[in-house]
Write a structure and sequence with these properties.
Length: 161
Amino acid sequence: MSDDVEARLDRLEARVAELEGRGKPPHAAPSGGTVTYQGDVHLHGDVEWSIGYSPDAILELSVARTAEVLAALGHPVRLRIVRTLLRGPANASNLQEAVELGSTGQVYHHLKALGSAGVVEQHARGEFRISARKVVPLLVSMLAAADISGEVASPPVRANV
């Protein structure tokens, strides 16, 4: 499936989900609140994404799967690979140059971890990419990490503790 068709399909699915759940995010618990994120991104193609979950449902998600994704993204070289691929598909040689590695073997080592975690996929012969469905979640993950580290200014938090 072409990138354009896949992106259009993802946008359509997101719109249908929004219309079906308007006023009540999916998996929302009546008393637990909702955690949401969304994006309208124009990097390598156009992507719109919106999702909402109850905090309780988030805390019940697979620890192993979540840890695998966070570990894959937690390595500086892998994060640079992801940042490069968010701008568009690339082959191992392009990635080697972009992230300044000594060999394509090192690139493939990191791509294997990213692929295993479901972050990166091999699209065409020798070409790697980030699927349109994962663009906004990855950007949100990077923004959330920067927010946690204090790198970006966060809005004030109102807490009733």
